[in-house]
Amino acid sequence: MITKRIARWFDDRLRAASFAQHALNKVFPDDWSFMLGEIALYSFVILVLTGTFLAFFFEPSTARIVYHGAYRPLDGVQMSEAYASVLRISFEVRGGLVFRQIHHWAALVFVAAIITHLARIFFTGAFRRPREINWTIGVTLLLLSIYEGFAGYSMPDDLLSGTGLRIAYSIALSIPVVGAWIAFLAFGGEFPAHDIIRRLLVTHIFVVPALLAGLIAAHLAILWRQKHTQFPGPGRTETNVVGSKLWPTYAARSTGLFFGIAAVLGAMGGLLQINPVWLYGPFAPAAVSSPAQPDWYLGWLEGALRIFPAWEIRAFGHAVPNPFFPAVLLPTFTFGMLYAWPFLEARITGDHEEHHLLDRPRDHPVRTGIGATALTFYSLLLLAGSNDILAKIFLVPVNGVTWTFRILVVTLPFAVGFVVYWWMAALLRSGEDSALRVPLRQFRPGRAKVPR
Question: CB 112: neighbour CB atoms within 10 A?
Fold first, then answer.
């Protein structure tokens, strides 16, 4: 009775009952692909929880000490306080290693879910009007998540992460005119700078998480305001949404997904070793670990650096060093195209109408072919980032592997894109439901028409 009276008292003043009823009755589509964004959201929640635990024990200092901790193979070795604190988390803090590994796995899944979610949006045309703003937010989330992962990966001050920071410093220096100032601003001095770990910590646990949380909130608010897209089907139109109500069906499904993700990440953190920094040893400026691969979401950048020819140019009295082209120009072009794509497609196709029903990839063969070209290109760069490991596995010279990837990245993506375009166009003409049941007669030159 008292609870009802209290609730009625608040409702009389806030008028929240009608809003709550409307919110709980909101309908969400049932297709599994719409859960990809929630995988990213819940991975972010796990990252915040585990990161908060780890922050209690991490020491962001490059001051040199002599280690006398629980890991005996490094007893008596000089190292930074940051590296020593990571060893302490891993071997002395109860549950520390599990939390470290859950945190790392969650970061990998977080970026993977964002990329997969963006790919789903791209291939289904969910970025079209009125959702250009949410697409822009999603691309920004991807950019920030890549930086956030790199910052966290670099903080332990082990030999592998130190190698990555050395590369990042060289990339900053390669920017014409302003490169030296940018490098000094980011690192606090000439590499290896003593302030970099502390600066990484501030951005990693304060600045970027706050930006991510704000953008995620904005993303969800816009999604809520604009309503969800859905695939075409019986009873589905541009003006309705067919699916499950938020309460109780969708809420139960989403809650189950959260606990499922937490369970999987917990199992991975406890059973699958990742980033064993004690094996790499402390960072030393004169040493470089080999083979050295970053986390997968930076593998394409590593691959571009490895296979780009040794070209340098001078322009307007300034040298443009080699790393600028694969590590600055390529990422700038990549994210520039991602930001611009909704507006470019609308301008080229002349389609400025609102869309709430999604496309199938076959409905727009050109867009699907371009997407397949891009995915193939960046997948090849990702593999090229492990050219030394591939050479060791297959017992061939590294130079041969490097030249193989140089040839593949300028040929294979276009071949794959053309084949996918041809296939999708044939599938659209045939009207078949399955992509594997396209009649051979449909594989002929001709312009595919989108059914109205």
Answer: 16
